[in-house]
Design a protein that fits this description.
152 residues, 5-stranded parallel sheet, alpha/beta, single chain, two-stranded antiparallel ribbon
Length: 152
């Protein structure tokens, strides 16, 4: 089994960042219990990583809810301009946006019924992590949901 736990302590511009993903067992439970994944930044371009990963998760049985104000539908699903517009239960919020956008998306996530915030590989933001964990979210960062699904 691959260890999906990541912890980071790094210095960026003199500021120390620290965050930690939940244990593999918790990540596996999140994936097992989830039925819907709202994908923030999901592109309708089949060449984009967000499309490819979302298509694989859809094929694995998850309902994908695209969140992108620039598209109408992706993978046969109606797209929403923001998380706040979604009128159904969201089990996981999966984010394909740059790290600097995470605090804004995290604030919006607080207005949903979701309790899981998943930032894709290479996407990390301590401000978003702190805000979400202080509000009882399970937060996973810098980890590909498709890879975790495959190995856990």
């Amino acid at each position: 089994m691959v260890n999906c736990i990541k912890e980071m302590v790094a210095s960026r511009g003199g500021k120390t960042m620290s965050w930690q993903n939940p244990p593999n067992e918790k990540i596996a439970a999140v994936l097992k219990e989830a039925k819907t994944i709202a994908v923030v930044g999901l592109s309708n371009n089949p060449e984009r990583t967000s499309y490819q990963i979302s298509k694989a998760m859809q094929a694995a049985g998850y309902k994908i809810i695209p969140v992108n104000p620039m598209v109408d539908t992706v993978l046969g699903e109606k797209a929403y301009a923001s998380l706040k517009e979604i009128d159904e239960k969201i089990d996981i919020i999966n984010v394909f946006r740059r790290s600097e956008f995470l605090p804004e998306i995290a604030k919006e996530a607080l207005e949903t019924d979701s309790k899981v915030f998943w930032a894709q590989q290479g996407v990390i933001n301590e401000e978003a992590y702190d805000l979400l964990t202080e509000n009882d979210f399970t937060v996973i960062m810098d980890l590909c949901i498709k890879v975790a699904h495959a190995v856990l």
